[in-house]
């Protein structure tokens, strides 16, 4: 494998190129007209423009990307996450063109891409499932009977859905038929497939996912779990590894369950098996994501593995060079997704120029990003600016390090979720580990980020703006001031 094309943009494209470069592999970037000056384009050995800014005219053009691969004699494609990463047809076309996909087979993507088929596959391998229907519901009165047997509340899910799309919770039988009708017509409109199924609704679950690797020789390992319960409207905000609620025994069980899920579709390469975990630490399979995930760095930090290098080695046909017992959890890692969003205004995406962009530094701090100071945040893509990742000796150490890193991260020009992250890290329920997927709804209000500057803080900020010759004052811009005041409050309370 001499040359890899990265069919993605931003931080993940750069992330992949760094590992490829360390392995002596040439890199090809693709980019849209909005990304001409992007770091991933400047970093690659070669770069090709694929089209106008909208994704469906650029990063999603599978056929065009394959033509570019042929023209530049590319051996393999890394799809990153999003875009074409879980597209089985793209995977099949690459195969047809004799180009390696750094990812699983199209068949594994097909099985795991549909929730009903994935549940049926993993069930045969003994992976625990939430009680529910095994097939798409066609007979609504029969489904109503089943729902009664399962017991309310139940949840209706679209088989083709994902990320919470097409889900409905039904608390009483009287609402069942109406909700079922609506769910099916919504699924038909959204996914062109009205297949829906029902499950017992697990109230206030935690979301824990397991990183797995499988090679082409039948070897599998799990790279422990990531706790992803701190999310808002199915968008993760803070992720950590390991989860602070798992015991070594449950960790081994959930890890083995994840490997079995991977085996059920002859999975190869890196994948993630998602579980919901109830308050008694029972875990249930939700779905398998057939890609490298946004939050993979926390698993890298605690395991010492470079997951992209492992992906490349697997795709080259190499055997995994370590066994399960060789893997150990070292310390604790946290990731905060820094989005260009306004947490005081319903997390509305904020576009604009990164007038000041200074990253935190130091031992155990990693920033994966795809922007530089002076760049505009384009409106066409995901509003994530950076992933702030820290690694500490233990969870407390990691939390303190993350707070310091947030304090040192200076972003002016767009509103960000940095101060929201600080709210999470300072929250007693986050600190104690007593939280679930309802954390943000239950505890967060925009007013939690309100602050008033004291004269010392105002002076500090005004000096800060003056240093950068900016026509802004502390009153004009809400930059790290919440952060500063909360950080100081927190320091005073310690
Ligand atoms: C559930 C559930 C409770 N019970 N299934 C949401 C996204 C999709 N992947 C599955 N999801 C859920 N499925 C049963 N039977 C609660 C959720 C859920 C959730 C899951 C993971 C992470 C965040 C979540 C937020 C709300 C609901």
Biggest sheet, spatial arrangement of strands: 13-12-9-10-11-14-21-19
CATH class term of the largest domain: Alpha Beta
Structural class, please?
Answer: alpha+beta
Determine the mean pLDDT: 93
As residue ranges, the low-confidence spans are 477-481
Radius of gyration: 23 Å
Number of helices: 17
Q: Tally the beta strands.
A: 22
The CATH architecture of the largest domain can be given as: 2-Layer Sandwich
Approximate helicity band: 25-40%
CA-based shape: globular
The hetero molecules present are: ligand MV4
- Overall domain count: 4
Topology:
Blueprint: E1 3-6, H1 10-22, E2 26-32, H2 39-43, E3 46-51, H3 62-71, E4 76-78, H4 88-96, E5 100-101, H5 106-113, H6 115-123, H7 140-150, E6 154-158, E7 167-170, H8 176-191, E8 196-200, E9 206-214, E10 220-232, E11 235-241, H9 248-263, E12 269-277, E13 283-289, H10 296-303, H11 307-315, E14 332-339, E15 341-342, E16 348-349, E17 352-353, E18 356-358, E19 365-369, E20 376-377, E21 384-392, H12 395-408, E22 410-412, H13 418-426, H14 428-432, H15 439-443, H16 455-467, H17 481-493
Parallel strand pairs: 1-2, 1-4, 2-3, 4-5
Antiparallel strand pairs: 6-7, 6-8, 9-10, 9-12, 10-11, 11-14, 12-13, 14-21, 15-16, 17-20, 18-22, 19-21
The protein binds ligand MV4.
Residues 130, 155, 164, 167, 199-202, 205, 207, 231, 234, 276, 286-287, 437 line the site of ligand MV4.
